[in-house]
Design a protein that fits this description.
With 361 residues, this protein is of the alpha+beta class. The chain contains ten helices and 20 strands. A six-stranded mixed sheet has the order 6-7-8-3-9-10, with helices on both faces. Helix 4 packs across helix 5. The mean pLDDT is 92. The structure holds adenosine-5'-diphosphate and magnesium ion (MG). The site of adenosine-5'-diphosphate (ADP) has 11 residues, from strand 2 and helix 1.
């Protein structure tokens, strides 16, 4: 039985539809992120799962039971928000033992629960301090310990790391996943940060304008995005427009708008079709033929160089070279760029154009 099942879940505010008929199943013990640009309906969705917002239509099942009309306090969930909401007048220890389950226990048992979860988030040594004496990352760990201490098997996280410094954010990602897996908890984590989603999730649910665009493992969404929006939102990509010239054997030759000719290992198309190629910068390289381009920018990224080049029709193409090869490239240099045929993904050209297809709202 899945832990969470959403069926046709919808929330409207007058004319605004914040969430539009979302169907989603989250398995027991799964770590799922709801990813999407700001305003796409993530918070509204997770609040309907939590019981803070009442859906306009549809059902929320938790552990197989219809919970649609059940208030938050009776849903047995742990919830962590972006804005850390600790009780300022309570010590770290008392904040953690505040959970509904801990309230019925005697002092000693409450203390033990606090200790157990503070140890998990590595804050045992700060249990007598007050929230204002902790830094943001530590405060968020206390919120997490408090949510876990409630004993609930379902953890809902709404942008839990967004208010933190980037370094702390990255460290805490691993902690979230580790704790969730260690405790066998089902976790639904809302974020607008695709890197965060990729690094913590078993599965990502990508949303746009109130609807689910695509669901898959981080790797599926990166390597084989079924949708141009996904290709553009998850990681970085070049979207190149062109026409199918010929389909021979296992490869198609695509004549690009920028004048180049490239090969793609995809054959479910026919000559003359208007297409868009998505190819990630790490799979574009300098070659003897392909797209003619001029280097316009070179950025040192530490483990690689990111090169920007402009094609003959002023289309921008980005590609990466290893730090060893980067020294031979200079701004203004002309070169040909080719792509690795197996790493590109082809899409039929969207009716309303590429810009519209990747727009964030
Ligand atoms: P996200 O969390 O993805 O940024 P939200 O779920 O907060 O998105 O909001 C989705 C959409 O619903 C937005 O257009 C937002 O303005 C709208 N919305 C959210 N809450 C309300 C509300 N209480 N009244 C009216 N519109 C709302
Ligand atoms: Mg939000």
């Amino acid at each position: 039985m899945p832990e969470v099942k959403l069926v046709g879940l919808k929330k409207s505010y007058g004319k605004v539809t914040a969430v539009n008929k979302v169907n989603l199943t989250v398995e027991n013990g799964e770590y799922v992120t709801i990813l999407g640009p700001s305003g796409c309906g993530k918070t509204t969705l997770i609040r309907m799962i939590a019981g803070i917002i009442r859906p306009t239509e549809g059902k929320v099942y938790i552990g197989g039971k219809d919970m649609t009309s059940v208030p938050i306090e009776d849903r047995d969930i742990g919830y962590v928000f972006q804005n850390i909401a600790l009780f300022p007048h309570l010590s770290v220890r008392d904040n953690v033992s505040y959970g509904p389950r801990a309230k019925d226990l005697d002092q000693e048992e409450q203390g033990q629960i606090s200790k157990k979860y503070l140890e998990m988030v590595k804050l045992l040594d700060k249990m007598c301090m007050f929230p204002s004496e902790l830094c943001g990352g530590e405060q968020q760990k206390v919120s997490l310990a408090r949510a876990l201490a409630s004993g609930s098997k379902l953890l809902l996280l709404d942008e839990p790391l967004s208010a933190l410094d980037s370094r702390v954010r990255v460290d805490l990602r691993y902690e979230l996943r580790r704790l969730s897996k260690e405790l066998g908890i089902t976790t639904i984590h809302v974020t607008h940060d695709q890197e965060e989603a990729q690094s913590v999730s078993d599965r990502i649910v990508l949303m746009r304008a109130g609807t689910v665009v695509e669901t898959g493992t981080p790797e599926e969404l990166y390597v084989h995005p079924r949708n141009i929006f996904t290709a553009n939102f998850i990681g970085e990509t070049n979207l190149l427009e062109g026409w199918v010239k010929e389909v021979v054997g296992g490869t198609s030759s695509i004549e690009l708008r920028n004048g180049g000719l490239v090969k793609v290992a995809q054959t479910n198309i026919k000559p003359g079709d208007a297409v868009v190629i998505s190819v990630r910068p790490e799979f574009v390289f300098a070659a003897n033929e392909g797209m003619k381009a001029t280097i316009t920018d070179i950025t040192y990224m530490g483990t690689y160089w990111r090169i920007m080049a402009s094609t003959e029709d002023d289309e921008e193409v980005s590609f990466d070279v290893t730090t060893m090869d980067g020294n031979s490239l200079t701004i203004g240099k002309e070169l040909y760029l080719a792509i690795n045929p197996k790493t590109a993904v082809l899409y039929p050209k969207p009716e309303d154009g590429v810009e519209e297809a990747i727009k964030l709202e």
